[in-house]
Recover the amino acids of this structure.
């Protein structure tokens, strides 16, 4: 069944992450203006492509992987860093949104080649 294809499931995972991160952000009572301003900030990692596809993919992936932002969230949580917690949730929401749109982690061969397929 097409609905259960890996690509569809990965897109649904993105929707799930986006929804959960937004719900957690709302529960914090943080500013939605801050959310709007910082939502696209992780895309600044595309600047890495100025140095070529290989470096660009590495820098982009660093800013768009659950592992990095998850670690940032854990540090924020256990150190009670009040500023870092909302930032980590915005970052997670951004990654979920990207995945929902079909943008995945980049391969070092071309910007449009991602783990979710060609964009």
């Amino acid at each position: 069944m097409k609905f259960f294809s890996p690509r569809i499931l990965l897109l649904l995972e993105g929707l799930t992450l986006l929804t959960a991160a937004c719900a957690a952000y709302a529960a914090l009572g943080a500013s939605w203006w801050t959310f709007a301003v910082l939502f696209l900030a992780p895309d600044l990692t595309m600047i890495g492509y100025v140095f070529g596809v290989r470096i660009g993919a590495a820098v982009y992936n660093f800013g768009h992987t659950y592992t990095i932002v998850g670690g940032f969230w854990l540090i924020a949580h256990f150190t009670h860093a009040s500023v870092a917690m909302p930032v980590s949730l915005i970052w997670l929401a951004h990654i979920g949104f990207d995945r929902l749109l079909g943008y995945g982690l980049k391969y070092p061969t071309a910007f449009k080649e991602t783990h979710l397929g060609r964009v």
